[in-house]
Amino acid sequence: MLISYFGAGSIVAQDASPSFADAVSQSVSLLVASGKAQLSYVDEVLESLKTLGPYFVIAPGLALAHAKPSDSVPAPGMALLKLAQPVISGSANDPVSLVFSMCSPNASEHMEMLADFGQIMSTDQVMTNLLNASAVSVIEDILFKKAL
After folding, report:
1. Which residues neighbour 123 within 8 Å (Cβ) at sequence distance 6 or greater?
2. Which position among 36, 66, 82, 110 bears the catalytic label?
3. For 105, which DSSP code?
4. Crossing angle of helices 20-33/40-52, nearest 10°?
5. According to the model, what pLDDT value does residue 20 have?
6. Which end of the chain has the lower number of beta carbons within 10 A, N or C?
7. Has 66 been annotated as catalytic?
8. For the chain, what is the largest distance between any 2 Cα atoms, rounded to a whole number of angstroms?
9. What is the count of structural domains for the chain?
10. Is the pLDDT of residue 146 over 70?
Protein backbone atom coordinates (compact mmCIF):
# COMPACT_ATOMS: atom_id res chain seq x y z
CA MET A 1 0.00 0.00 0.00
CA LEU A 2 1.35 3.40 -1.03
CA ILE A 3 0.82 5.11 2.35
CA SER A 4 3.28 2.77 4.08
CA TYR A 5 6.15 4.10 1.95
CA PHE A 6 5.74 7.72 3.05
CA GLY A 7 7.47 8.78 6.26
CA ALA A 8 6.60 11.73 8.45
CA GLY A 9 7.18 15.01 6.64
CA SER A 10 7.81 13.34 3.29
CA ILE A 11 5.26 15.45 1.40
CA VAL A 12 6.07 19.12 0.92
CA ALA A 13 4.34 21.80 -1.14
CA GLN A 14 6.39 24.85 -2.03
CA ASP A 15 6.22 27.72 -4.49
CA ALA A 16 9.29 27.11 -6.63
CA SER A 17 12.67 25.47 -7.07
CA PRO A 18 15.65 27.01 -8.87
CA SER A 19 16.04 24.05 -11.27
CA PHE A 20 14.88 20.52 -11.97
CA ALA A 21 18.07 19.08 -10.43
CA ASP A 22 17.44 21.12 -7.28
CA ALA A 23 13.84 19.90 -7.14
CA VAL A 24 15.02 16.30 -7.49
CA SER A 25 17.60 16.84 -4.75
CA GLN A 26 14.96 18.39 -2.46
CA SER A 27 12.52 15.54 -3.07
CA VAL A 28 15.13 12.82 -2.46
CA SER A 29 16.32 14.68 0.64
CA LEU A 30 12.82 14.16 2.06
CA LEU A 31 13.56 10.42 1.95
CA VAL A 32 16.73 11.06 3.93
CA ALA A 33 14.90 13.23 6.48
CA SER A 34 12.27 10.52 7.01
CA GLY A 35 14.94 7.85 7.59
CA LYS A 36 14.19 5.88 4.42
CA ALA A 37 17.55 6.61 2.75
CA GLN A 38 21.04 7.74 3.62
CA LEU A 39 22.46 11.03 2.33
CA SER A 40 24.58 9.19 -0.25
CA TYR A 41 21.35 8.15 -2.03
CA VAL A 42 20.78 11.78 -3.05
CA ASP A 43 24.09 11.65 -4.93
CA GLU A 44 23.13 8.34 -6.55
CA VAL A 45 19.88 9.82 -7.90
CA LEU A 46 21.61 12.99 -9.10
CA GLU A 47 24.26 10.88 -10.82
CA SER A 48 21.48 8.94 -12.59
CA LEU A 49 19.99 12.25 -13.72
CA LYS A 50 23.37 13.46 -14.95
CA THR A 51 24.16 10.21 -16.78
CA LEU A 52 20.74 9.28 -18.18
CA GLY A 53 18.96 12.61 -18.39
CA PRO A 54 15.42 13.19 -17.13
CA TYR A 55 14.28 9.59 -17.79
CA PHE A 56 12.20 9.65 -14.64
CA VAL A 57 9.86 12.34 -15.98
CA ILE A 58 7.25 9.71 -16.74
CA ALA A 59 4.15 11.72 -17.63
CA PRO A 60 3.23 15.34 -18.28
CA GLY A 61 4.05 17.25 -15.09
CA LEU A 62 5.18 14.11 -13.20
CA ALA A 63 8.64 12.87 -12.23
CA LEU A 64 9.51 9.79 -10.20
CA ALA A 65 13.13 10.38 -9.19
CA HIS A 66 15.02 7.25 -8.18
CA ALA A 67 18.17 5.26 -8.64
CA LYS A 68 18.69 1.51 -8.72
CA PRO A 69 18.20 -0.42 -5.46
CA SER A 70 21.01 0.50 -3.12
CA ASP A 71 22.80 -0.27 0.13
CA SER A 72 22.16 3.41 0.94
CA VAL A 73 18.50 2.52 1.45
CA PRO A 74 17.55 0.87 4.76
CA ALA A 75 13.81 0.86 3.97
CA PRO A 76 11.56 1.37 0.97
CA GLY A 77 10.31 4.92 0.81
CA MET A 78 8.52 7.58 -1.18
CA ALA A 79 8.35 11.35 -0.97
CA LEU A 80 6.75 14.17 -2.92
CA LEU A 81 7.77 17.72 -3.62
CA LYS A 82 4.80 19.60 -5.11
CA LEU A 83 5.80 22.80 -6.89
CA ALA A 84 3.35 25.64 -7.49
CA GLN A 85 5.67 26.92 -10.24
CA PRO A 86 6.75 24.00 -12.45
CA VAL A 87 10.36 23.42 -13.49
CA ILE A 88 11.86 22.45 -16.84
CA SER A 89 13.65 19.09 -16.92
CA GLY A 90 14.50 18.76 -20.60
CA SER A 91 11.85 16.07 -21.10
CA ALA A 92 8.99 16.06 -23.58
CA ASN A 93 6.72 15.90 -20.51
CA ASP A 94 7.76 19.35 -19.23
CA PRO A 95 7.06 21.35 -17.21
CA VAL A 96 7.19 19.29 -13.99
CA SER A 97 5.16 20.16 -10.88
CA LEU A 98 5.06 16.80 -9.08
CA VAL A 99 8.51 15.52 -8.13
CA PHE A 100 8.02 12.18 -6.43
CA SER A 101 11.06 10.29 -5.25
CA MET A 102 11.42 6.66 -4.27
CA CYS A 103 14.06 4.42 -2.83
CA SER A 104 14.27 0.68 -2.38
CA PRO A 105 16.82 -1.67 -0.88
CA ASN A 106 16.22 -4.44 -3.44
CA ALA A 107 14.72 -5.18 -6.85
CA SER A 108 11.55 -6.88 -5.60
CA GLU A 109 10.62 -3.91 -3.37
CA HIS A 110 11.45 -1.61 -6.28
CA MET A 111 8.99 -3.39 -8.58
CA GLU A 112 6.29 -3.57 -5.91
CA MET A 113 6.56 0.15 -5.26
CA LEU A 114 6.37 0.96 -8.96
CA ALA A 115 3.24 -1.18 -9.29
CA ASP A 116 1.56 0.51 -6.30
CA PHE A 117 2.51 3.94 -7.61
CA GLY A 118 1.26 3.14 -11.10
CA GLN A 119 -2.05 1.92 -9.78
CA ILE A 120 -2.69 5.17 -7.88
CA MET A 121 -1.44 7.46 -10.65
CA SER A 122 -3.17 5.65 -13.52
CA THR A 123 -6.21 7.90 -13.63
CA ASP A 124 -6.28 11.37 -15.12
CA GLN A 125 -8.43 12.55 -12.20
CA VAL A 126 -5.73 11.75 -9.62
CA MET A 127 -3.12 13.58 -11.71
CA THR A 128 -5.39 16.58 -12.22
CA ASN A 129 -6.25 16.76 -8.53
CA LEU A 130 -2.58 16.52 -7.50
CA LEU A 131 -1.55 19.18 -9.99
CA ASN A 132 -4.26 21.50 -8.64
CA ALA A 133 -3.66 20.78 -4.94
CA SER A 134 -1.70 23.28 -2.90
CA ALA A 135 -2.08 22.02 0.68
CA VAL A 136 -0.27 18.96 1.99
CA SER A 137 -3.47 17.73 3.66
CA VAL A 138 -5.27 17.75 0.30
CA ILE A 139 -2.37 15.92 -1.36
CA GLU A 140 -2.45 13.27 1.37
CA ASP A 141 -6.21 12.81 0.89
CA ILE A 142 -5.72 12.31 -2.84
CA LEU A 143 -2.89 9.82 -2.46
CA PHE A 144 -4.00 7.88 0.57
CA LYS A 145 -7.77 8.16 0.72
CA LYS A 146 -8.33 8.47 -3.02
CA ALA A 147 -10.46 11.52 -2.31
CA LEU A 148 -11.33 12.73 -5.76
Report:
1. none
2. 66
3. S
4. 150
5. 97
6. N
7. yes
8. 38
9. 1
10. no
